[in-house]
Amino acid sequence: MKILVAGASGATGQRLVAQLLERGQQVVAVVRSTNSLPEALRNDENISVVQASLLDLSDAELIQLVNGCSAVASCLGHNLSFKGIYGHPRRLVTDAARRLCMAIKANQPQTPVKYVLMNTVGNSNRDLDEPLSLGERIVIGILRLALPPQADNEQAADYLRTVIGQNDTIVEWCAVRPDNLVNEDLVTDYTVHPSPTRSGIFNPGKTSRINVGHFMAELITDDVIWERWKGKMPVIYNKTSA
E strand or H helix at 163, and its extent? Predict the structure, then answer.
């Protein structure tokens, strides 16, 4: 299986790439700098590294990039710096989802291609009744206005929900929502839920990046797990915080 990973050099992207390579998958890793990938990943025989800023690629280049891919995973996010949060591109995650899905469709693959998006528990699944308290609504509203990445993550998931939808014959999707990302060295037990089981604002849990990478890899390579979660926005917690 050939899988494109956007944001492969990020903290979570690296862990997803490692999980896919452990499973013997062929990975096309899109990175801004090849040096940002650990040497052990760069030297794996099953990885092809593309040095580029994804949104700087032309439509034709993106079409070629996703050609033959069974899945596309986006671990793109905004750097936690003033420039990363308030600079451009402000719609990095959304524009990448839109352009990558359009590129997939342009190739007219014979079987559906999976699009797996790393999102956030701070974004509600509007297809479900996920109640929010007044306090949570106020805080999220402030975040949406003050922090462009919040709106970007919401719009990316909304693109998949409303434009790609549930019945597209070419692109199938899943938006993974971790809570309060932390670094751990090993995969641990984790739980996956259709909706949050705790307040991401006032009672956040924890999700290790390596567990996110593991779950995204499982979605991509295990058809039973994919059928369970496609078209949905699963929330993932480390088991001790669920």
Answer: none
- If phi > 0 it is left, if psi is from -120 to 50 it is alpha, else beta; for residue 27 that is beta
Residues contacting residue 135 through CB under 8 Å, at least 6 positions apart: 201, 202
Instruction: Give CB contacts under 8 A, 24+ apart, made by 31-39.
Output: 33/9, 36/9, 37/8, 37/9, 38/14
CA atoms of 173 and 165, how far apart (whole Å): 9
Rounded-to-integer distance, Cα 201 and Cα 135, Å: 9
For residues 33 and 207, give the distance between their C-alpha atoms in angstroms, rounded to a whole number.
Answer: 27
pLDDT digits (tens, 9 = 90+) for 193-224: 999 999 877 888 999 999 999 999 999 999 99
* Separation of alpha carbons 194 and 177, rounded Å: 10
For the question of whether the overall pTM of this predicted structure is more than 0.90, the answer is yes
Q: Which two tokens stand for residue 106?
A: 């342009």
Read off the tokens for 31. Answer: 């990175």
Residue 233 has pLDDT above 60, yes or no: yes
Asked whether residue 240 carries a pLDDT value surpassing 80, the answer given is no
CA distance 56 to 169: 28
End-to-end CA distance of the chain: 32
Domains in the chain with CATH codes: 2-241 (3.40.50.720)
* Cα–Cα distance measured from residue 97 to residue 102, given in angstroms and rounded to the nearest whole number: 8
Strand ranges (E), the chain = 2-6, 26-31, 47-51, 71-74, 113-118, 171-178, 181-182, 190-193, 207-208, 235-238
- Indicate if the pLDDT at residue 86 is higher than 70: no
